[in-house]
Amino acid sequence: MNQKSEETRDRKKFGYQIARSVAVVSGIFMLIFSILVLANYFQTKTTDPLNSPALETLMGQMEERPDDQALKEQIRALDLLARKAYFTTQWQIRTGGYLIFGSFIVFIVSLRIMGHMKSKLPVVGEKPVNVWESAGLTRKRMAITGFSMAIISILIVILSHSELEEIQFRIDEVMDEAGLTDSAYPNDEILRQNWPGFRGPYGTGIASFDNVPTEWDGPSGQNVLWKTEIPLHGMNSPIRWDNRLFVSGADETRRQVYCYDTDTSEMLWQRDVLDVPGSTDEIPEVSYDTGYAAPTMTTDGERVFAIFANGDLVCFDFEGNQIWAISLGIPQNIYGYSSSLIIYQNRLIVLFDQETGGYLYAFNTQSGRMEWQTSRENMMTWASPICVNTGNRFEIIINANPAVASYDPSTGRVLWSIEGMTVDAAPSVAYADGWAYAVNEYAFLWAIKLEDPPQIGWENIDYLSEISSPVANEKFLFVATSYGDLICFDAKTGDRYWVESFDHGFYSSPILVQDKVYVMDYEGVMQICYADVEYRPISHLELGEASFCIPAFDDNRIFIRGDTHLYCIGHEDE
Amino acid sequence: MISDLIRHDQITRKWTVVLLLSILVCSIPTQIHSQIQRFPKPEFESGHVVPTPTTPHPRQDIYEYIDVAVLIIALSTASYLALKKRSRNGIFMLSLFSLLYFGSWRKGCVCAIGSIQNISLALFDRTYVIPITVIAFFTIPLLFTLFFGRTFCAAVCPLGAIQDVVILKPVKVAAWLQKVLGFIPHIYLGLAVLLAAYGADFIICRYDPFVGLFRFDASFLMLLFGAVLLIGGIFVARPYCRFLCPYGLILNWISRLSKHHVTITPTDCIQCRLCEDSCPFGAILPPTPEKAPEARSVEHKRLAILLALLPVLIIGGACLGSLLHTPLSQIHNTVQLAERVRLEELGKIQDTVIESETFQQSGKPVEQLYGEAALIKNRFIKGSTYLGGFIGLVFGTTLIGLSIRRKRRDYTPDRGTCLSCGRCFAYCPVGKKESKEDEK
Fold first, then answer.
1. Is the ipTM reported for this complex over the cut 0.90?
2. Which residues lie closer than 8 Å to A541 by C-beta, 6 or more apart?
3. A182-569 topology per CATH
4. pTM for the full model?
């Protein structure tokens, strides 16, 4: 037993000595290389091989004697030498680094082996640490540390300096003008109190208003608070911000924007769109169904924006002053351009799809400067973008042939795309509760679950809309077709709850107002029913003229654009 | 002048030769290689064709999920080895595996420590999409810590592993100094969250001292920083984990609530005191003396004063923090650029830098740049106020924690600072005896 123990001890002793020798050698190796690499590094830092005084002197001589071949050769030789010296140094540092690291590993392993071969017994002190005394000392030192930190912080504050502080007053003005303050972007609550664009806030067709009228009669004037003629025709829908209502109109040569007082019907201002840089007199080819002013305007609460069939994009302030305008050129579009505008923060999003070379643009709402543009490889589109918060980000979602795609509104980057959609895309996307719904007649109705990556949760090919955009909430999806059917689906499963057929088709889109669905047929009859698992009609209300637009909503009131007139519907008794 | 350069070249060569001769084993291959490097063929008329740039394919998602799976397996194994098996050797071997996998193979990314910044950015910037694997790397170690203590630090974190390997001659850091230095991670965490949330910088990644070693690629100063920490780590165990790591701080908080935790002894402490100095991290709490050093009334009075002082410290810290918003906001690139452009505009700086030149060429109005910078600065007022308040809170609660008398009979690991490395297991005679009996 003793002999075995002695052998083990001897083996350990031998191993310890070997490990110690290796540790010493590798330690010295590491030390020498560290010193050399450090020296080399600092030498490199102080040497600029391309701008050495010698080279500059020779270059100066070269200007005096440009034909001196010997001098040229001398410069080349010097240049080559300097570069070689530089790169050799770099190589030395890199190789030295590897060698240091390798030797460090050997050094550590050797020391660990040494420790293993000669383990020490634990040493027990005379008496255990008195934790309370230690806590008292720590408390005092902590207090000193805290005080020192405070002093250092104050010194940093005193010593720090910003040139921008001297122009802070100017910055505040600029920020307000540029809309860069957080408060400059209307928040969700403000957006929902207004009707800022096509299909309301975010373009989803959801209205959050109470006491919206469910009874009126246009021909007899029941509950029609006011009615006024619109100077120029347009297929665009009214938008509202506080007590201002905006619509646009156009014909072959004129393009106009109108602002009305929602309370009195007074036209506050009417402006021709003039002086648009890059605009031509060329008349775009459009169908009657589309016209020259199909895209719905949008507003950020301070400015309104309109775009027309010839690609003229314009911004007015609320007083009717033209702030900026640009021409995007006449789009190649067989029926006429119809995609509506939408805003994300200070970016005006413009979908400008055409036969070839379409783009999605974002313009700065204050200056009109282009923030980003993303090319789109798809067919012509008549749908409008929506811009929704899908959980942890905002997305611009667009229905098109051949892909339903999503874009980052800050950068224009494509977030996802699902290909397979076909034919002409006119209905815009509906969105609710993490699901997006895209539909095209003679193609598909897709319910896309916005997971990572998004997937088609269910699809339907029986009831498809041609122009009207669907609308959804957490439970239901409503689709209105151009042949007069209104269909209610289960939003998550695609089960069809009911189909109701009407005399006339729908070009306008259904809007969800609390628990009710409002949808106007193209003869101007508003069909109102409950959003429920069974069809429960509320009323069928005539406007008295055809209507293709989507109403703008408010508490107690609806604003409807007919073929030639603008209506305010409310409660006469109130 | 040419002769100067030639002389310099000769000196360099001479030193290299001296060095290479002194290390005989390495000298032959190195010298041959060196000569090839020193005298490359001239390439002035080599007909060299510039290669077409290629975009590397992104790493496939499946590998990221494999990383998460490896993380879960490693954490499970570490917890088993620490709590059930009580095997220091097993923990050490697992930490070597983690060093090779998460460090050398995965190049230190994605890592739980850096994920703090992704989480912060995702919380404050709705447009930022955080990958699911990053969320997993952030949350899974926290969940394991909640159940088993800091087993992540013991054997899974590659930054911890590389430092653990070099602990050779650990010296005991005085308790007060350890507490004072332990304050740094609070500041680092606060700063990292603030700067990430406002899109200024990911400082945890930028100043990761070991990622350069994992990748063999970093700035000289970062490599030097890593080397200093490693060499220092021979004597002061795991300096980064204890006095810098912001994720370790979060684990420290959670570990205090952990359902299970490693113990020094598997059964009852016999007060042999053998484990007293076994922990190189100073994470073993000794028993408290029977006799209190002060009267109860004195202690109560001090505690009352500190409790009353806590709101003052928070408010004072918040005020001080808000005053620091200017230097803090200047870490943000946009603010830096705006300051630079303003200095050039005022003529206080004559030359330009590439950033200001690029800005001037972009055609962007300078007012807009100033506006954006001002917006960022305004955000920093709020952020730095919260940061200051947080520091004040931590400072106050630390002082209060030091003033509460807690009685302990046995030697126990400090649940917050104990890294569950298992070094103390071997020092406990009770544990050793049980191990021998188990073996029998």
1. no
2. A214, A215, A216, A217, A218, A525, A526, A528
3. Methylamine Dehydrogenase; Chain H (2.130.10)
4. 0.59
